[in-house]
Amino acid sequence: MKRNTFLITITLLAAFFAYNYFSIEQTTYGDVVSNLLKDNETVIRVEISKTSYNDNAVTSRKTAIISNEDSINRLLKEPVDMELKTHDRNPAIVYWLTFYTDVEEIKGFDIIMDNELALIGKEQYRISGNNKLAETIENLHIDWETH
Question: Which of 28, 79, 102, 141 is most buried, with most CB under 10 Å away?
């Protein structure tokens, strides 16, 4: 009886880990963003919000609107090879980017992320390695408005 219980437990654990391992999809920021933009769409504006926390309390919030084509292209292209893995957790809201397109200036998509997790469009991801999008944001010369 104990042997059967042990074998069933081991089998269930192996099945659980196999399911989790094989159900994780790996992709890149570039692939995800290109799937969100339709063929004829061009990003014309990006609204960015950056929130700082201390002990889970908001300490500061900054916002900016980017309409400079070079800066927009950097946000879209510099992190293209940032690796992402599907995940089941939402990120803390450290960065919130809203991309607007030239199609009637409707909102294209949002990216909400912290340093490890991202919600891009409607999909949740774990960021593998460096968060290249956060690095790009920090390296842009953004005129932040503090709230």
Answer: 79
